[in-house]
Amino acid sequence: MISESINYLRNDEDWLKTVLIGGVLTFFSFLIVPAFVLLGYTLDVIRATMRGDEQPPEFGEWVDMTVDGIKGFAIVLVYSLIPAIIAMVFGFAGILSIAAGGGESGAANAFGGIVTLLGLLVAFVLGILAAYVIPAALSNYAETDRMGSAFSVGELRPILTSGKYATAWLMAFVVLFAASVVTGLLNVVPLLGFVLGSFVTFYAVVAAYYIIGTTWGELHEIEMMEDDGDMPGEQPAV
To answer: What parts of the sequence cross the membrane (predicted)?
Structure first.
C-alpha cells in the first residue's frame, strides 16, 4: 500500500498543479489560514480514499475547504490538549514542590524533579496515543460530517483495536518519517531546502492519509453517494 500511496496524487493528470498549490500552502501554513485549507484538503483525501476513489481531489470550494479544515483543527486540538495539560499540571506540581523546600532542600528538589519527569513521561505516552487516535477521529468525522463522531468511543474503539488499522498507522508513520528525513537533507541548503521541503511534506501527508482513508474504507461500511447526489435514506431536496 505504501507504493500505491506514493503514486496516488499522480493518478490525476493535473497532479503537478495540485502539488504546486499544496506545497505553496504548506510553505505559508504559518499564516494559519493556509493550514486550515490544507487540513480541509486532507479530509477530502480521506473521504475519497475511504470510498475507493483513486482520483485525488482537487483544490476548490476554498471557503468550504477552509471551514472543514477549521473543524478538523478543532478535533486535533482537543486530542492534543490532554497531553499538554497533564504535562503542565505535573510540571507545576514539581515547581511547587521545589518552591516549598525553599530551593535548598535536596529531598524537595529531588521529589520535584521526579514529579516533573513523571509528568513528561505520561504526557509523552498520551501524545503517542493521541497521534494514534487522531487519524481515526478525522476519518470518522470525514465520513459522517458530524463533529461528535470524532469523539465517539463506541464508534472508534473497533477501529483503533484492529490490527489492520495499527498496521496502516505504522505505514503512514513510515511515509511521514521518510519525508522528514528527506526534508532534513534538503535543509542543508537553507532557503531552497525549506521551499522544496514544503512540497515533500505536502506529498507525504497526502500519501499517509491515502493509507488511512483506504484502510478506514476497508474496515468500515461506508455510505456511498447515490447517482442523484443524495445519501442513502436522505430525502431529495424540494
So the answer is: 20-41, 73-99, 111-138, 166-186, 192-212
